[in-house]
Amino acid sequence: MRVTILGCTGGVAADLRSTCLMLDDDILVDAGTGAGDLTVCQMLRVDTVFLTHSHLDHVALLPMLADVAGPRRDTPLTVYALPETIAILKQDMFNFRLWPDYTVLPSPEKPYVVFRSITVGQTVELSGRKITPLPVRHAVPGVAYQLDSGNASFVFSGDTTYHEPFWNALNAISNLRYLMIEATFLNCNTAGAEASGHMRPELLAKGLNQLNKAVRLLITHMEPGNEDATMAEIQTAAGEFKPEKLKRGQVFEF
Prior knowledge:
Helices cover 24% and strands 25% of the residues.
């Protein structure tokens, strides 16, 4: 399995893209602005999207992906998400007001987009690749994902604050190699992190102290302009772990 980082920041600016990962060449995990760097040919190869949650920086390009690919494909784009996420997208995005409802267009029998509900802990297997939703805690319902090749696993936290069940789930993964985890706010912004359900370095350290295995630690979703200060706080808090600032374009094989 191969993960390509198309977007990994908590906001957008020049050369910064919001969250989107490409698994091999046919699956996306989230559909933030990073998806906009794909060529039309690359978009047409994407059959499946897994969403962590409904916030715009993680779903903004989904309707446009459907718009480009839909008329050129014989099969719909399959989107896996929590039932709550699907309900939000159908009400607030695919509603004929913000965007056409491609779950019924061009016809209910042959739409451009098909939603499939996921459940925490229930694995979806696609061509031998196992994708399992893991528990997180955020301002809206959300999940993390374990991407398991059999040989090793790559976990992407999605958006989350400290959540003990998430760290327990990590400890149960025997082949965990990569942990891509958010750290949005500086430690001084306790109120902002609490209100929005995001991680601070101190909360990240609390979780890492529970982790029972070595991992390659990849930091994502930092606020634009605060990356260096956030990484400095993470370096101080991470103990034996060696956190890496994730970069757009990085590729991980496992």
